[in-house]
Automatic annotation (TrEMBL), chain A:
Cofactors: thiamine diphosphate
Enzyme class label: oxidoreductase
The protein's Enzyme Commission number: 1.2.4.1
Function: The pyruvate dehydrogenase complex catalyzes the overall conversion of pyruvate to acetyl-CoA and CO(2). It contains multiple copies of three enzymatic components: pyruvate dehydrogenase (E1), dihydrolipoamide acetyltransferase (E2) and lipoamide dehydrogenase (E3).
Compartments, record wording: Plastid, Chloroplast
One Pfam family recorded for the sequence: Transket_pyr
Recorded GO CC terms: chloroplast
GO MF annotation terms: metal ion binding; pyruvate dehydrogenase (acetyl-transferring) activity
Keyword line: Chloroplast, Metal-binding, Oxidoreductase, Plastid, Potassium, Pyruvate, Thiamine pyrophosphate, Transit peptide
Protein name per Swiss-Prot or TrEMBL: pyruvate dehydrogenase (acetyl-transferring)
Domain Transketolase-like pyrimidine-binding span(s) in chain numbering: 85-260
UniProtKB/TrEMBL annotation, chain B:
Organism: Hibiscus trionum
SUPFAM superfamilies to which the protein is assigned, alphabetical: Thiamin diphosphate-binding fold (THDP-binding)
SUBUNIT field: Tetramer of 2 alpha and 2 beta subunits.
EC number annotated for this UniProt entry: 1.2.4.1
Name of the protein in question: Pyruvate dehydrogenase E1 component subunit alpha
Function according to Swiss-Prot or TrEMBL: The pyruvate dehydrogenase complex catalyzes the overall conversion of pyruvate to acetyl-CoA and CO(2). It contains multiple copies of three enzymatic components: pyruvate dehydrogenase (E1), dihydrolipoamide acetyltransferase (E2) and lipoamide dehydrogenase (E3).
Domain of life assignment: Eukaryota
Record-level GO BP terms: pyruvate decarboxylation to acetyl-CoA
Domain Dehydrogenase E1 component residue range list: 69-365
Keywords: Oxidoreductase, Pyruvate, Thiamine pyrophosphate
Pfam families hit by this protein: E1_dh
Co-factor requirement: thiamine diphosphate
Length: 405, 394
């Protein structure tokens, strides 16, 4: 892995491979680095192209690790470090660190300031940074999204929160026409470094209008990037990367994932916006998923392992553009693909992904790609019906069995 | 416009070589003359929730001559664009601003290039006012590389970042929230500058306008919303689209001012007033009572919803260039011949620029994919085949 955190004086063995080289043949997720460095020491930053930056200028906190590894069960060395928190706290931490680091970052949305955010993602920020940086807007999505984009044209970096992703449909014109296209139609004069974020997805009986998955609506807008977070680790990393990115990024969170707990590293890290995450390497079938469905897939994976299958689970994370490199390597290994998503069947992320894989990797497929998505219905209120609307682990198991015949 | 100053001075020195003719006192070099002249605006301002500024505007010969030249240039540019469109060199949509030039030049006279302007798709002349060159305009209209947006924007997408001109927007009314966002950024950075967000009488009925106005008033943003009321929203007259066509009053709690938009000096006075007001008290609405001679766009003849008599009537009585011409002649600042020479010069400039713009090449096919994303942050990130480095750590 490329940029390595070092104590002063010691030069790092340079890794020549780029930081996101996921060789899916190895089990890449066993963190072998032993970080025994104390926190408040002066340091050298070794960059991925080999240059060593001693005393990097200006920035307050230079300890940026592009691929810090979250602890999972297998790592002994890193288990003492890091701190445990919930996903919404991870988002808040990421936001707070970025606001501290760059005075141009501001947050705007409904109830983000004094109330602390309807999902507590912006809790405490208004007290800390003041009313000009954490802005409570009236309920006017179209205009405050437009205002965020206008502010971004001058160089500010607003983080626009939609209380629920579904409300951003009201701002669709601003997101599609102004956010996505201004960099192009101005011939490169303006960049729009906004982050549009909010919770979406099917919750617990929230009703049709509050259970929308808008990934499919936004995916064809040229000029924007879309990412979906699924764990506290990647939530914080993606939030920070999205804020630092010069492009408009839409960060999809999920209502039901806000209370996930995980131990994340203490150091400053970001997650690459265009990279997929290997959740579980395997041999028999590639399961591509994102957001909440990752957990349904992992649940199904337990059953599948007991039945003797070895699924490879990839959390695609980057919904636009797709990380075809990681996905491609996986397809070349397993030759079978199952896509599990919460999006609607028609015109969803799965549909685009199926097309992308077929176009690029058709020769490597032993079976047609299977795509499990939500039913093409408005989400019903009744609990039993709502359960059937989204993909359940049992269906995933059946699908894998069918695929691997 | 420094260039106009130089050209006028050269014609002036040529005149000095000739024997003095009718006007007996030796006329001063008017293009550098900054002796103040006070002019009354054609009609008084009407205000809503504020005190109207005075009708007497201070100006000087240099400014008047600049107004004349700039408006003549804009007029000639729009007419040339009309012919180019009919010759199929400009395609798509082309919305012409002739008749409304006074708004663009009057506004520029009152503000600096640090103040922001954002407008709708009728942006050719506003772009020139902000310092854009004729070549950039024509090249962009014809889709060439030399255009201000490299040929990728077109008529409705002119931008000039270094002089704070934020475009150029195709969707009616969508630029007003953007404009309030610009004002927010100005307040955030404590710049002491203001934003002028221009829109038309058609856009005045958009909900997002009122949303943005509410937020601007709430947060005290230095946003000035300017309604260029040319009385027709495409083919629909204002009285058929708005229950209350008094657009300057529609801000309700936000003060407003109604201005004769065909009088460049009135526009200048109003904008100066508005800038002072916005920096102290928050948003204000200006309604510019103006008129467009062409139809809504090149595909609209402009005569199905209004009579030709109306158009010629306005042209005779309220034309902005004629007003300035009369002013210059009545104050004896230049002879008719000099003004006609300026117009001829302008015409030649436009024609020469068009020839030059026609030679600008079409964009390279690879430009299709540039500027979709900004490269910037990120650890090294590659394309699908590992060949193209897409982003690297800054």
């Amino acid at each position: 892995m490329a940029a390595i955190f070092q104590g002063v004086g010691a030069a790092a063995p340079l890794s020549s491979s780029p930081s996101n080289s996921f060789d899916s043949n190895k089990s890449v997720f066993s963190p072998r680095r032993s970080f025994s460095v104390s926190k408040r020491v002066s340091f050298a930053v070794v960059r991925s192209d080999g240059k060593v930056n001693l005393n990097p200028k200006g920035r307050r906190d230079q300890r940026l690790i592009p691929n810090a590894v979250a602890t999972n069960a297998g790592s002994a060395a890193a288990s003492k470090q890091g701190h445990e928190l919930l996903l919404f706290e991870a988002l808040q931490e990421g936001l707070e660190e970025e606001m501290e680091r760059d005075p141009r970052v501001c947050v705007m949305g409904e109830d983000v300031g004094h109330y602390g955010g309807s999902y507590k993602v912006t809790k405490g920020l208004a007290k800390r940074f003041g009313d000009l940086r954490v802005l409570d807007t009236p309920i006017a999505e179209n205009s405050f999204t437009g205002m965020g984009i206008g502010a971004a044209m001058t160089g500010l970096r607003p983080v626009i929160e939609g209380m629920n992703m579904g409300f951003l449909l009201l701002a669709f014109n601003q997101i599609s026409n102004n956010c996505g296209m201004l960099h192009y139609t101005s011939g490169g004069q303006f960049t729009i470094p906004v982050v549009v974020r909010g919770p979406g997805g099917v919750g617990r009986q929230l009703g049709a209008e509050h259970s929308q998955r808008l990934e499919s609506y936004f995916q064809s807008i040229p000029g924007i990037q879309m990412v979906a977070c699924s764990t506290p680790y990647n939530a914080k990393g993606l939030m920070k990367a999205a804020i630092r990115s010069e492009n408009p990024v839409i960060l999809f969170e999920h209502v039901l994932l806000y209370n996930l707990k995980e131990r994340i590293p203490d150091e400053d890290y970001i997650c690459n916006l265009e990279e997929a995450e290997m959740v579980r390497p395997g041999e028999h079938v590639t399961i591509l998923t994102y957001s909440r469905m990752r957990y349904h897939v992992m649940q199904a994976a337990k059953t599948l392992v007991n039945k003797g299958y070895d699924p490879e689970v990839i959390d695609i994370r980057s919904l636009k553009p797709f990380d075809l490199y990681t996905i491609g390597n996986s397809v070349k290994k397993t030759h079978r693909v199952l896509i599990v998503e919460e999006c609607m069947r028609t015109g969803g992320i799965g549909a685009s992904l199926t097309a992308a894989i077929t176009e690029n990797f058709n020769d490597y497929l032993d079976a047609p790609i299977m795509c499990l998505s939500s039913q093409d219905v408005p989400t019903p209120y009744a609990g039993t019906l709502e359960e059937v609307t989204v993909v359940q682990p049992a269906q995933i198991v059946t699908a894998v069995e069918q695929l691997c015949q | 416009m420094a260039l106009s100053y130089l050209r006028s001075s050269s014609s002036r020195s040529a005149n000095l070589l000739k024997p003095l003719s009718s006007s007996l006192p030796l006329r001063r070099h008017i293009s550098t003359d900054t002796t103040p002249i006070t002019v009354e605006t054609s009609v008084p301002f009407t205000s809503h929730q504020c005190d109207a500024p005075s009708r007497s505007v201070e100006t000087n010969p240099k400014e008047l001559l600049t107004f004349f030249r700039d408006m003549a240039l804009m007029r000639r540019m729009e007419i040339a664009a009309d012919s180019l469109y009919k010759a199929k060199l400009i395609r798509g949509f082309c919305h012409l601003y002739d008749g409304q030039e006074a708004v663009a030049v009057g506004m520029e006279a009152a503000i600096t290039k640090k103040d922001c302007i954002i407008t709708s798709y009728r942006d050719h002349c506003t772009f020139i006012g902000r310092g854009g060159t004729l070549l950039e305009v024509f090249a962009e209209l014809m889709g060439r590389q030399g255009g201000c947006s490299k040929g990728k924007g077109g008529s409705m997408h002119f931008y000039k970042k270094d002089s704070n001109f934020y475009g150029g927007h195709g969707i009616v009314g969508a630029q007003v929230p953007l404009g309030c966002g610009l004002a927010f950024a100005q307040k955030y950075s404590k710049d002491e500058t203001v934003t002028f967000a221009l829109y038309g009488d058609g856009a005045a009925n958009q909900g997002q306008l009122f949303e943005a106005l509410n937020i601007s008033a709430l947060w005290d943003l230095p946003a000035i919303l300017v309604c260029e009321n040319n009385h027709y929203g495409m083919g629909t007259a204002e009285w058929r689209a708005a229950k209350s066509p008094a657009y300057y009053k529609r801000g309700d709690y936000v003060p407003g001012l109604k201005v004769d938009g065909m009088d460049a000096l009135a526009v200048k006075q109003a904008c100066k007033f508005a800038k002072e007001h916005a920096l102290k008290n928050g948003p204000i609405i200006l309604e510019m009572d103006t008129y467009r001679y062409h139809g809504h766009s090149m595909s609209d003849p402009g005569s199905t919803y209004r009579t030709r008599d109306e158009i010629t009537g306005v042209r005779q009585e309220r034309d902005p260039i004629e007003r300035i011409r009369k002013l210059i002649l009545s104050h004896d600042l230049a002879t008719e011949k000099e003004l006609k020479d300026i117009e001829k010069e302008v015409r030649k400039e436009v024609d020469d620029t068009i020839t030059q713009a026609k030679e600008s090449p079409m964009p390279d096919p690879s430009e299709l994919f540039t500027n979709v994303y900004a490269k910037g942050l990120g650890v090294e990130s590659f394309g699908a085949d590992r060949k193209e480095l897409r982003a690297s750590l800054p």
